[in-house]
Amino acid sequence: MLYHSFIDAGHRIFGLHPIVDGKCGCRNKDCKAIGKHPFASSWQHTPLWSNDQILKMEEAGQFKTGYGVLVDGLLVIDVDARNGGVKSFKKLLKDIPSIKDAGLIVNTGSGGGSQHLYYKVSSELALQGKHDDYEGIDFKSSGFVVGIGSQHKSGGSYEIASGSIDTITDAPAELIELLKKKHKKRVLLNDQHIDVSGSEVVEMLSCIDSDVEYDVWVKLGMAIHETMNGEGFRIWDEWSATGSKYDASEMESKWFSFGKSPSPVGLGTLLYYAELAGYSRPVSFDSSEPSITDKQDLNGLPCDISNIDLLRPPEFVGEIADFINSQCRYPRENLAVGAALSAVGNLIGLRYQDNYSNVTSNLFTFCVAASSTGKEAVLQAFGDIGRAAGINAASHGTIKSEQEITRNLIHHQAAIYALDEVGILLQKIENASRSGSASYLEGVIGLLMSAYSKANSYLLLSGDVRRDAETVLVKELTSCLAKAETSASGRYEKRAEQIQQTLDNLSSGLEKPFLSLLGFTTPETFSGLVTKASITNGFIGRSLLITEKETNPRAKKRFKAEPISDMLTHKIKMLYSAGTFSLDEDLSRVEFYGNKVSIPSTDDAMILLDDIENWIHSYAEHHKELSGSEAAIRRGFELVLKISFILGAPSGLRTAYHCQWAFAMVYRDINDKTMLAFANDNAKSKSSAESGRVLTAKILAQIDNKTGATISTLANRLRKPVKDIEAALKHLGSQVIIKEAKHKGNGQVIVKYYTK
């Protein structure tokens, strides 16, 4: 036997159970792997033995009749004459003539033309072990082969036909290319035909501990048999052999018993156990099919937004955004813009009206940023603006119940919610809904959405909530009447009249309630809550989504927050009072039922708004089949109206640029929410093509045209293999959706990816 020559050439060998009287030395009378049965269960981890170790193994009889050679850095063509291998080999010779020049060819001893052809390959290559065009041939680049000089159970031996161990040559390039191709089987899973290659099955199995329970081991074998049309024995055997419970004698008999069940297990079972162990299917991309990442519509955008800087809102909103960001140790420019829009919307909400439509300036704004990156400073600055205007009495940091919301709207016409962690509230609602105990929380959300849309009309109250409101009002009325008797100011009489009027009209609801919400949360908490259902039916679809995609911002040097200036405070007060400063004597009450200041629109602004409305309708149609998010897209026009109204009110005129900037903001909002919803709704898809669309959607949710990310960063954030990230980025690049840029840092060139 030539195992010393294999060792000298750097190949690892291990002992096989001997052949004794034509039977396997493992003493299992039913053993089907006679002469091919590894002596040790850990054979795949065998080291490169020293001469002394080999001597001891020889003395123990491990090489008595044969030995195995680990196929590591080798590719062995195993021709099995019993299963049509000779005929297939002739075809292979015709297809790739250079294989005849193998540096080592071994006759296996079974006769009939069975042989091994040895070549060198890189151990990094992932090659398939079988090919449908060449039945009866195994292409072994993993596992083991029986070594030269070993006995065959037929009585023959493994003998060199030509060449030597020292003359093994590199595998022909044509052969490598043939085996690199993922020759796939089509499998039906969840009513979808999925292409599955042998290499994918191997990858799934590599994630699963081979020492699984016996029934699971059997199920996996059945799944492989069904998935590979009965051709995956080698894959199952080599994986099983890595476990401590491996018994080569039962492998073939067990394998041949598979496929006889009327309800066989298949790919779904294999995927289930692989995914439990952390496996995810390789993604694929098809440029010929519509993609969720395709942001283009059939008719083009209604206006040019290529030069719009969403971090620089026009005029007074931009000034407020600059102040908010100046209060942050870490640059939080996106959050500052979201908070500025919400803050200015609150300032104008009670005293200004839009002459183009019946839209109001209250917003639901969700600001998403990584933990410990400065969102607390944004929240504090937002409160400073409310205090400067004198409306902070109507601000609240929590939402407890329907009754509490109603009481807040009774005490003030406005209710301004600034929530430090809105994602927790949304998660509670989602969890309660799934458990069937959502009545209380759903009532809260229902009231929020109703109040949001009733800022120019009446908010109807449910029976219990109305009765609670009556109790609160009557109690306050009694108190005001008592105080009026001892006060000469007249303020309590006036308030008593207002309360009585509210009570008289309570059956019609609360008049013109102004409710806004600014919520802060983290990507981990929030992103998974964005689904087609939530953006279609919930208040996520009515919200403006602002995401700070830089998760590791650099702190400003020598940062020192300065208090709000007297000049900015003056501007805030002037805007809130509509320039009159004739505020009611009772400044503790935030309300105004008088005539509002009308904000006109220029002619070109109204034309552009008409164009935007038409485009949004077309874009919603475009997404009917693509994502099913058409309802959320249609709501985008209301957001354009609100934002452009907020931008124009401080100067007293809505312009086309205000509309253009608002559209750019809403366009980003629509696509961010649509991609997140698609990714979440299809996260568990078994289709590799669908998984590819999901991955591209998730990548685009992580980057924008200013905040990029490296491949490794994306792989870590999304918990996907680097190869999948690379494939997704290549696909996005082919669609001209992203771009790459090189940066120098720490003496290295770093490649980051951005949206165009």
List keywords for this structure.
about 750 residues, alpha/beta, Prim-pol fold, Rossmann fold, 4 domains, five-stranded antiparallel sheet, five-stranded parallel sheet, about 15% strand, elongated
Spatial shape = elongated
Strand order of the largest sheet: 8-5-7-6-10
Number of domains: 4
Relative strand content: 5-15%
Q: Structural class of the secondary structure composition?
A: alpha/beta
Percent helix: 40-55%
Number of helices: 27
CATH class categorisation of the largest domain: Alpha Beta
**How many strands in all?**
23
User: Whole-Å distance between the termini?
Assistant: 64 Å
CATH third-level topology of the largest domain: Rossmann fold
Enumerate the spans where pLDDT stays under 50 for 5 or more consecutive residues.
292-299, 582-587
Question: What is the name of the CATH architecture of the largest domain?
Answer: 3-Layer(aba) Sandwich
| Main beta-sheet annotation | 5 strands, antiparallel
Query: Averaging pLDDT over every residue, what do you get?
Result: 81
Structure report:
- The longest helix is centred in the C-terminal third of the chain and has 26 residues, at 656-681.
- The chain has a 5-stranded antiparallel sheet. A 5-stranded parallel sheet has the order 15-16-19-14-20, sandwiched between helices.
- With 756 residues, it is an alpha/beta fold.
- Mean pLDDT is 81; it is low at 292-299 and 582-587.
- Helix 5 (198-206) runs parallel beside helix 9 (267-276).
